[in-house]
Amino acid sequence: MSTLTRIATFVLTVQVVGMTVADIVKTVDGKVEGRVSAMTPLEVTVSQDGSSKTIPVNQIEWISFEEEPALLRRARDAVAAELYEEASKALENIKTDEIERAEVLQDIEFYAALSDAKLALRGDLDIREAGKRMRAFLTNHANNYHHLEACAVVGDLLAALGQYAGAREYYERVGKAPWPEYKLRASAAMGQLLLAEKKPQEALKFFQHVIDAKVAGKRVAAQQSLAFIGKARCLIQLGKPDEALPLANDVIAKADSEDTDLLGQAFLVLGIAHQKAGRLEDAMFALLRVDTMYFQNRDAHAEALAHLVEVFTALKKEDRARDARRALEDLTGEMQSAPDAQ
After folding, report:
1. CA dist., res. 184 & res. 157, Å (int)
2. CA atoms lying within 13 Å on the CB side of residue 90
3. Is there a contact between 47 and 37 (Cβ–Cβ < 8 Å)?
4. Rounded CA gap, 84 and 69, in Å?
5. Which helix (H) or strand (E) holds 311?
6. 10 Å Cβ neighbour count for 29?
7. What is the pLDDT of residues 65-104, one digit of tens each?
8. Which is deepest, 141, 199, 308, 313, by most CB within 10 Å?
9. What is d(CA 248, CA 300) in angstroms, rounded to the nearest whole number?
10. Cβ contacts of residue 276 below 8 Å, gap of 6+?
11. Helix, strand or coil for residue 229?
């Protein structure tokens, strides 16, 4: 879904402020209406006129509760559109003391923690505080259907802090889910941890496992794209940059043009591979894509700028090397002044 489509959907949903007449569980292939009567980390039970239906969590996209305020629906749709600041603002304006239903209060707590986590991973909020908030959700609501997603997010936050052992524990929880897409998500995350620990040969096994999976679906495809990028990074670390190039190019060719984060990571890897292979002009053009078009991910942007300094220097473009160094210092200063660096 493009950014414009996500925003249009968000705006349209915000305009619908009437209360729902029943709980609605939106699944990957339809919806189930009734009353959510029970939930666990793996399934949700919906009561319908004396009978009940159990829905696995991997089939659920979201749940709308009959008693929920319109602001919660607004926040949920904003999260789906990756508009996390808008989600946070909506949730902050909810008067929780007027809400009695536990499931609604838990949804508010989860989406508030999730929005904070996503903003923290972008460098806009305190990573440690976001982690505490999501861990509190896990502790206080161990049976909520958001449990596995919350575990994955805590793992991401710990990984961003370099706390790999703690991150691994949370990813392993996700990997214990009975569905392949969750197992693959955990495998891809484990590969990233090993890559960060400079263990490319071990990381490669996890990425290859994700790539080789014969499972369909958008969630699996997203993990496989990240696994291809991870594998390319492994090959670069192993001194095989030419083998990394087709992997990065394939991701770029197949990526949604609006998926700026994925494209930024792919062009970054492409640039590093060209640089390591001695093709400095090609490296420069790929890295400049990250700097000028796909700079939303601050970590990837900083890494691209660091490599641009090296590439410009090697090409004897001293003025451009100096500009890239200054931009890197400014960006690094912004990142260090964020709350998580205190």
Report:
1. 19
2. 22
3. yes
4. 18
5. helix 298-314
6. 7
7. 999 999 999 999 999 998 999 999 999 999 999 899 999 9
8. 308
9. 15
10. 236, 239, 241
11. helix
Give me the mean pLDDT over the 141-146 stretch. Answer: 97
Going through the chain in order, the beta strands assigned E by DSSP cover 23-27, 30-39, 43-48, 51-56, 60-64
Cα–Cα dist 115/150, whole Å: 11
Residue 89 CB burial class (10 angstroms; 0-12, 13-18, ≥19):
middle
Task: Please give the model's pTM, rounded to 2 decimal places.
Answer: 0.84
76's CB contacts (< 8 A; 6+ apart) are: 62, 64, 87, 107, 111
3-state secondary structure of 259: coil
| 45 three-state secondary structure | strand
Can you count the helices (H) and strands (E) in the chain?
Answer: 15, 5
Q: Which amino acid is at 39?
A: M
CA distances from 214 to 150, 198, 203, 280, 309 (A): 26, 28, 20, 37, 41
Sign of the CA dihedral running 33, 57, 260, 110: positive
Q: How far apart are CA 134 and CA 153, in angstroms?
A: 8
Cβ-proximal residues to 102 (8 Å cutoff; 6+ apart), any chain: none
- Counting other chains too, the contacts that 165-171 makes at CB distance below 8 Å and 24 or more residues apart are 167/193, 168/193
Angle at 169 between CA 166 and CA 175, to 5 degrees: 145
> Which structure tokens are listed for 112?
């508030």
301 neighbors 331 (Cβ within 8 angstroms): yes
Question: Does pLDDT of 189 surpass 90?
Answer: yes
Torsion 281-287-289-291 (CA) sign: negative
Two structure tokens written together for 175: 């990997």
Q: What is the CA radius of gyration of the chain?
A: 22
